[in-house]
Amino acid sequence: MMSLLWKGTQLETSMGSTEFASMVAALLAMSQGITVLLAKSLLFFNYERPYFYEYSAGFSGVLFAMKVVLHSQSEDYTNVHGLVVPARYAAWAELILIQMFVPGVSFLGHLGGVLAGILYLKLKGGYSGSDPLTVAIRGLTGVLSWPIRFLRNRFESGWQRTSGRRTFGRGLSSSASVGVWRCPACTYDNSNLLSICEMCGTGQSGNRLFSSSQGIPLEELRRRRVERFG
User: Fold this and answer.
1) Which of 22, 31, 71, 110 is catalytic?
2) Phi/psi of residue 78, each to 5°?
3) Nearest-CA neighbor of 61 among 87, 86, 17, 26?
4) Same domain, 128 and 179
């Protein structure tokens, strides 16, 4: 798991989550497929018990493939269990050293992972853009995330309508951006579709066209308005 965290962080950061997910899926399928083919090929050596009858479990084959992909373009050197080797050959060195010191591990599984990494790089180089698996995963994630995007857009638009429809008191920049005009008498922000103030009946030019407040003083209107929208 520590190896997956170290390799996965670097690979996902460099290629993006969608392409990283498609790479892991491809390496998983290819490493297991190559392992089965290698096990089948051992039948030509007349083994008493066919190797593909042996059982193994683990993710290390994919980790070997990820190591090949990670160090494919590297010109640096790396330390493999105390042995300093070119980074691009680190997977091969680790394959041999692990088999020497831990003979119970699946040699064919690890070898299949190394070969899967090489095959993935060859296939990846044949595409000028995104590979088909990446496109498919990107499309699937787009479909699955559509309801979340839809709800988020509706929430944001609703919030803008309720919070930005009426503003008052502190400057004109926020109100001017939403198509309103400020009453010169009571400072209420009205829609540009209206020519008179919705609160006190004053026109845009400042003339008192009519009073919807039945003679209530402007200070009282302001106080009520603050209480209403406060």
Assistant:
1) 110
2) -135, 160
3) 26
4) no
Hey, which residues does 196 pair with through a beta bridge? 203
Quick one: CA dihedral 37, 43, 44, 45, positive or negative?
A: positive
- Judge whether 71 counts as a catalytic residue: no
Within a domain: 211: yes
Return the structure tokens found at 208: 């008192």
When divided into structural domains, the chain yields a total of 2
Do residue 29 and residue 101 come from a single domain?
A: yes
The DSSP code sequence of 108-140 is HHHHHHHHHHHHHHHHHHT-SS--HHHHHHHHH
CB 65 within 8 A of CB 7: no
**52 and 105, same domain (yes or no):** yes
**92 touches 105 (CB < 8 A):** no
Q: Which of 22, 60, 106, 175 is catalytic?
A: 60
pLDDT averaged per 10 residues, the chain (length 230): 90 88 91 88 71 77 92 81 82 88 85 92 75 71 76 70 50 50 80 76 65 63 74
Q: Tell me the residue range of the domain where 126 lies.
A: 2-141
